[in-house]
Amino acid sequence: MSDGRYFFALWPNEAVRDQLSAVNRRMAANGRPHHADDLHMTLVFLGQVADSQLRRIHDAADVIRGRPFTLHLDRTGYWPRPRILWAGPERTPEPLSQLVFDLKNNLIPCGFEPERRTYKPHVTLHRKAESTDPGKIEPSIEWPVTEFVLAVSGGGAGGSPRYRVLQRWPLGTAGDSLTNDADSISVNRR
Ligand code: 2AM
Prior knowledge:
By secondary structure, the protein is of the alpha+beta class.
């Protein structure tokens, strides 16, 4: 069992990340802002994973086809109990719901119980945030989603990013995966 907590997510490109960071700065929510490189939208949270499960988790993602789509991040919100300030879409696009559904479904044979709570797409901007005045993001942030990733938590010391992207899968082409080893990105065809 490795120490990190694993999750499938959407990871923003640089332009989207910069716009999210700008919204975060404008909200000035005190608390702990996420490092810009950590901004992401979780699809399915896995938690700790046994080494023996990792191969099967990759296999579950390999067969996802999905469709590219655009995510309109048009609002911020605040959840008082976890004190999280987030950005998200007013409406969940159907290809996003389908992607989450397919991932959860494919992960059942790997031993993961699907989360029962309704999926609420959000990008956490700030933790331990003071109550802020959530509202619309105008103009909305247009996020062209063309891939999903497997990421793991573990860093975060000394203000460095907390999360690391392990692997990327393009949407629309089942069976191809993009590995992201340090700074080199290559395409694996199985
Ligand atoms: P959050 O941003 O709403 O806290 C890595 O920790 C990612 O997984 C974060 O995006 C976090 O969501 C999410 N996450 C952490 N613990 C979780 C849990 N128990 N259930 C669902 N998602 C979780």
